[in-house]
Amino acid sequence: MTISTVTVTGMTCGHCTSAVREEIAAIAGVTDVEVDLDSGRVTITSDQDLDQGAVKAAVEEAGYQITGG
Amino acid sequence: MTISTVTVTGMTCGHCTSAVREEIAAIAGVTDVEVDLDSGRVTITSDQDLDQGAVKAAVEEAGYQITGG
Question: Contacts from B29-33 at CB under 8 Å and sequence distance 24+?
Fold first, then answer.
């Protein structure tokens, strides 16, 4: 199991966190996603090596940006 | 056809406007809903007398509040 964190900017409300959570949850191997609206910190639990490119693509698909790991 | 406007507070992003739009669009007789995020102004087109109580309930169901007509 691996746990990764990224910081996402642009989220303003619970709908935003849901959109990010749902997109990231759809990535292969992801078993849990925690999103903190205030900090933008997203904690991703995966049962295989996490594809960082897929995470970036998922966040952008939701309409937001990653600023850092 | 009647056109009504209400002002909704608490919307912060496009997901918020979509949530309000969808709830109000489900009210009997409503044919169009325009939501302006910056002003909070919601313009509702209806083909029958609009139930203001239903509009208030719809906005609250979406998680927001009406402040004025």
Answer: B31/B1
